[in-house]
Recover the amino acids of this structure.
């Protein structure tokens, strides 16, 4: 037991989780913005926009996250010299955020589209009937209701994103949870089960409140019809 | 029972005679006629004034309009002109294309061939020009379609602010005066779901009026309402007709047609089968299809 407790002084486990939370936070913002734009493209009457949105979702959603993050580091950074920060570590962090945002934007798009489907078609017709064109109608009438209707699927995307943030390990973000766990497993081979349990429980503690919060929010924000 | 004699609003030259049983075939709608018959004389004088001042420019003009839903030819060579201040009621059995006709006029439904003009302008196919033209055409839906996440007041101010660029304070003043007119100003801070159907539909009318439309389309405005709420909506519509609003009303309310219409259009199987004044249509329908339709109303 003492041996186990000493892990917490030897390794900064909370700091590792904090990196994942930061990755999640920035990637969630990026994915939300990009996913909303994609969702608007997919529901837009302009064929080429809709086709682009559909293409993006189908390609990115069906590509493994590891491939996308590795591409960011090995192709964009190593081969093309693409950087997002002059600071060495920050650059990897930013690349990981970008990859996570690009990947999860596809899921956010689909979550919002499922929310759009909860908005009765009459709402869009009424918006058009008073003379609102596509963007004002989307901004004022459709999307506010669609977001309220997509709280639960968006929460699920966020939960997936929290867990997927550990894939940033392949993107050379060295101090996030899965990288720290890897180090600990290498050096503390007699404690592998407690180490695994520590990280598993850590994620459970982070994820469960998100689930509870989204359920509560979806009830609170539900549009009365 | 003594017959009640009253002038028909919206057109001049003859009167409607209501005997106890004569209008019984319109079922519950009879009640509305009885309840509001006192207002009828006022309306007839008002509409005489407005029809004298009306112009001959058609506000809505449909020329050879055709539309198909797959193999179903839902609108067949529709030609229709509605002049300023005219109240046109579209009647017909379910599936006759009357709702579709109404929805093509602001292009919520596209058409295959033909043309639709609003106040002399051909209805654009898409984009900003279409949005601008739609702003001139008010629409009231069967299912109200109030913006569910916005307050009653916001429902009415949204169009003036976002489409016409009106200042918020000005739009609020306009909205409150319109909500007062339809009798729901005291509900202005509530959400649509907190109102009764009749109140919601009156808000929907106020929302359409806030755009100062050239013509108002009503797509079965009372069909989703409980019977006791139908009158409040119909009274609001009669008030509008009285003020000279150009209206196209798809409805099953024969009482409204008799009372407020200048012209009744009878549709069946995607065609305009008959057009007449309400009196002519209800007392002496020409086509077999219309006779059959009215006959079914009498038997139930």
């Amino acid at each position: 037991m003492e041996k186990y407790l000493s892990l917490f002084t030897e390794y900064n486990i909370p700091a590792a989780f904090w990196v994942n939370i930061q990755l999640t936070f920035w990637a969630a913002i990026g994915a939300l913005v990009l996913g909303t734009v994609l969702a608007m493209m997919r529901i837009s009457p302009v064929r080429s926009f809709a086709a682009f949105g559909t293409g993006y979702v189908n390609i990115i959603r069906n590509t493994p996250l590891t491939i996308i993050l590795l591409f960011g580091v090995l192709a964009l950074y190593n081969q093309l010299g693409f950087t997002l920060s002059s600071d060495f570590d920050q650059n990897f962090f930013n690349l990981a955020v970008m990859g996570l945002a690009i990947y999860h934007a596809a899921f956010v798009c689909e979550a919002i589209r499922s929310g759009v489907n909860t908005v009765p078609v009459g709402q869009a017709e009424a918006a058009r009937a008073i003379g609102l064109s596509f963007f004002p109608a989307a901004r004022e009438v459709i999307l506010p209701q669609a977001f309220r209707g997509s709280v639960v699927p968006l929460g699920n995307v966020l939960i997936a994103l929290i867990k997927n943030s550990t894939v940033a390990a392949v993107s050379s973000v060295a101090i996030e949870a899965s990288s720290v766990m890897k180090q600990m497993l290498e050096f503390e081979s007699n404690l592998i089960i407690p180490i695994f349990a520590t990280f598993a429980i850590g994620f459970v503690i982070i994820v469960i409140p998100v689930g509870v919060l989204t359920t509560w929010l979806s009830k609170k924000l539900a549009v009365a019809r | 029972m003594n017959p009640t004699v009253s002038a028909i609003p919206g057109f001049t030259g003859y009167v409607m005679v209501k005997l106890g049983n004569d209008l019984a075939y319109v079922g519950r709608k009879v009640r509305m006629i009885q309840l509001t018959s006192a207002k009828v004389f006022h309306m007839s004088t008002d509409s005489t004034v407005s029809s004298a001042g009306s112009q001959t420019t058609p506000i809505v003009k449909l020329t050879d309009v055709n539309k198909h839903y797959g193999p179903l030819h839902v609108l067949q060579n529709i030609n229709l002109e509605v002049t300023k201040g005219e109240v046109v009621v579209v009647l017909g059995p379910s599936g006759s294309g009357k709702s579709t006709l109404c929805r093509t006029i602001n292009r919520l439904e596209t058409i295959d061939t033909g043309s639709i003009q609003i106040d002399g302008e051909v209805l654009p196919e898409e984009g900003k020009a279409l949005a601008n033209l739609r702003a001139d055409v008010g629409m009231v839906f069967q299912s109200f379609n109030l913006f569910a996440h916005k307050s009653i007041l916001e429902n009415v101010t949204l169009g003036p602010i976002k489409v016409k660029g009106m200042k918020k304070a000005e739009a609020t003043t306009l909205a409150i005066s319109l909500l007062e007119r339809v009798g729901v100003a005291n509900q202005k801070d509530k959400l649509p779901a907190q109102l009764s159907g009749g109140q919601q539909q009156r808000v929907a009318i106020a929302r359409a009026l806030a755009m100062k439309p050239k013509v108002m389309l009503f797509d079965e405005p009372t069909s989703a309402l409980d019977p006791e709420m139908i009158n409040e909506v119909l009274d609001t519509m009669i008030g509008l007709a009285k003020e000279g609003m150009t209206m196209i009303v798809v409805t099953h309310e024969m009482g409204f047609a008799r009372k407020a219409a200048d012209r009744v259009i009878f549709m069946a199987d995607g065609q305009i089968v008959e057009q007449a004044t309400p009196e002519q249509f209800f007392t002496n329908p020409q086509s077999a299809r219309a006779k059959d339709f009215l006959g079914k109303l009498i038997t139930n």
Q: What stands out?
A: The interface with chain B takes residues 45, 120, 122-123, 125-133, 136, 140-141, 144-145, 148, 223-225 of chain A (CB under 8 Å). The mean pLDDT of chain A is 92. DSSP finds ten helices and no strands in chain A. The two ends of chain A are 56 Å apart (CA to CA).
